[in-house]
Amino acid sequence: MSKTLFDKVWDSHVVHEITNGPDVLFIDRHMVHEVTSPVAFLGLKNRNSEVLFPEKTFATADHNTPTINQHLPVKDPLSANQLKALEENSKLHGISYWGLGHEKNGIVHVVGPEYGITQPGATIVCGDSHTSTHGAFGAVAFGIGTSEVEMVLSTQCIMQPKPKKMRISINGKLSKGVTPKDVALFIISELSTSGATGYFVEYSGEVFREMSMEGRMTVCNLSIEMGARGGMIAPDNKTFEYIKNREFTPKKEKWEKAMKYWSTLYSDENAIFDKELFFDGNNIQPMITYGTNPGMGISISKGIPKAENQDGGVKTYLKSLNYMNYNEGESMLGKKIDFVFLGSCTNGRIEDFREFTKIVKGRKKACNVTAWLVPGSHKVEKAIKDEGLLKVLEQAGFELREPGCSACLAMNDDKVPAGKYAVSTSNRNFEGRQGPGSRTLLASPLVAAAAAITGEITDPRTLY
């Protein structure tokens, strides 16, 4: 019987099928951080339970860590307590712990792939919705709640209903200045933030085959923003070359054995999906959001759509525009901005900094713009310095901060003030997401760089 890529990975991890209920799924890799794990560990303590397979669990501090002066004690008492709890719980249960100052520290969905924890055909969970990032390697990866974190810690299994299957195929060639972030924002604008609810999405076609692994991670990262349980891309030679010889990947004979299995991970020719969508990559342009959810995105050169053309309700749509202080029909080009954020698990990798640097090289940051450039890990930070990118950035008037989630969710001091506009390479633009009253415009690193240089929304293609 023909199977989809998702079926192959999911079905091979089912420990038990519950009649008219969820599957009991074995989990290969469990990533934990300081925000959603303390209560889960407390649950283990209250039940006098242990972590069943500590070698399959990896802990890093990222969500509410500061991005400057990480060598100093964390000032916020809640954050400090959460970080201390993660460190103590990891030590107690024998879990690998990469805290502040550790050379492997970084955003959970950045360091996982960097060190080969993320592998094809694996099941991966974390108490964070953007765990879907790891699906770029042909893994079934999804976010879970705190009670489920406790379940996985104690049993290495989770109870989950099997999602439906959707395939999104995009062929054609992307135009100059169009990035994987633009592809993802384009898809979300077409489907809305609920268009993939109940589905696990496989991305296929020429556009995704041509993407780098880091680009694929960006696309899979944003799967959750259209309501999907997760997203994945079939592994290929790019995947295998990326993960080869990383710390936690199989070596020698084990590598050969793994490759035999990984090479079977693709959707069979006659595999059936519950839903299929097709788009033309030639039609995708640099994107930017104008409202208060990731689905409210448009090509950067277009005007804000009329309320009467929206499916979500006129009142809600106008409320969103009112929050952003925008009007129907207005052009996004030329709109003034105040902050630029480059980073997050969506766009905090070395390729993102390379793209940003291409635009700002030989130019100067606009004096009205505050820019936060936050690498996704210490490994990214080191590459920025080793490749000479930091020198170029500093000459343009930018400063590099230390790794962490930063302004993506503003759980530390990196908060955009009320009423200010931020062009952000992160994943969500909800009301107050980057600080109470803040206004977020989601975009690619290229669009963010263009805005940082000009002080306004600018088509990056005009700066090449």
Description:
The chain folds into 2 domains: 1-285, 2-Layer Sandwich (Aconitase, domain 3), CATH 3.30.499; 302-463, Aconitase, domain 3. Helix 2 (38-46) crosses helix 5 (146-155) and helix 13 (350-360) packs parallel to helix 16. Helix content is 31%, strand content 16%. The chain has a 5-stranded parallel sheet with strand order 5-4-3-6-7. The longest helix has 17 residues, at 77-93. The protein contains 16 helices and 18 strands. It is of the alpha/beta class and 464 residues long. Strand 13 (287-289) and strand 14 (297-299) form a beta hairpin.
Share of residues in strands: 15-25%
> What fold name stands as the CATH topology of the largest domain?
Aconitase, domain 3
So what's the CATH class of the largest domain?
A: Alpha Beta
User: What can be said about the biggest beta sheet?
Assistant: 5 strands, parallel
The helix count comes to: 16
Number of strands: 18
Number of domains: 2
Mean pLDDT: 97
Percent range of helical residues: 25-40%
Q: From the helix content, strand content and strand pairing, which structural class follows?
A: alpha/beta
According to CATH, the homologous superfamily of the largest domain is Aconitase, domain 3
The neighbouring-strand order within the major sheet is: 5-4-3-6-7
| Dominant shape | globular
Spatial extent as radius of gyration = 21 Å
Low-confidence stretches: none
**CATH architect. name of the largest domain:** 2-Layer Sandwich
